[in-house]
Amino acid sequence: MKPSVYWVVLSDGAKPTEDIYFLESVAPVLRSEGACIERVVASRFIAAAWLKGRDFLSRYAGANLLLCRSLPPSWLAWLARHRHTFGYVVYLIDDDIAAAADDATLPAAYRQRMAGIAKRQPSVLALCDEVVACSDALAARFSGLHANVSVLTPPLIAPLPTLAHFDEPPSVNSPWQIGFHGTRAHLQDLQHITPALWALLNVRQDIQCEVMLGKHTPLALASLPNTSTPDPLPWQAFRHYQASRRVHIGLAPLLQTPFNEGKSFIKFLDITAMGGVGIYSNRYPYTEVVRHGENGLLVGDAPDEWRAALQQLINDPQTTANMARQAAIDAQHIGDPQLAVRFWQGRQH
What we know:
By secondary structure, the protein is α/β, with parallel strands linked by helices. It has helices at about 15-25, 25-30, 50-60, 75-80, 95-100, 110-125, 135-140, 185-205, 220, 235-245, 260, 265-275, 305-315, 315-335, 335-345; strands at about 5-10, 35-40, 65-70, 90-95, 130-135, 150, 175-180, 205-210, 225-230, 250, 275-280, 295-300. The protein has two domains: about 5-150, Rossmann fold (3-Layer(aba) Sandwich), CATH 3.40.50; about 165-335, 3-Layer(aba) Sandwich (Rossmann fold).
């Protein structure tokens, strides 16, 4: 006997998106209510195999489908033929794929991959009953492409740490930790503020900086003795790292580009999950959640403004610790997984 509610996450490998917005934040609650939820890897060839396709239909007929980012062409064609067999189909998207494909500042291989996804996106949209976007700005991009577009901002799935690392003020023996844990998609944003970081790291021995970009870290930073450049980690490994690593200050620069305009405020949650206070570009989406001087700092694009913001936080450790506490409170509120649970409960057909 099949359960009354069945969700299948048909995955092309976008595990962070799937985990954050559904599998880690919502699925445990839905399962406790009797729903059956599975993640099926949409390999390139499985849908083209007649026998395996028939088995999929037999097992998942009537199930709701959650699609993230894209699917291989064979799957899209197969689902189009059998769309009537399934229930409610949702397309979950947390990046402006078309803008990424057109952004010359992004890595060429990444742009090429995004261009392929953008080409398939109309076929994905044609299958779906609803598009769920991570921000109002991204939802607006889809409003002319689909009749039913909703917004689900990112839930907080990481545990929040104690803030004991703020007990000691910055010193040579106990330097404060500054972190940049963005992907290569934000390398240009980091490069823009690198002069500010370089100038400060050169004269302050009571701070250390971690840039998780490995060999792609800007040379001006990588050459400094108080900068570490670990390689980026796979998703699950990063989650374990995030749970144990503590920073005092997190960096979230975001230049004004079409690709960046579609971003969510997830870096606010990420920085808070590592126990830090964030310095954020003074623009959407951070202006939606950051109150300057209360739970983080909002600064303009000039590197001097970033240097001044860093100095402000380092030179006033008590106020910075208070901001970290407030950021944690706010992260629990805006990232409350129950908001996402109620969102998905309303889509169980």
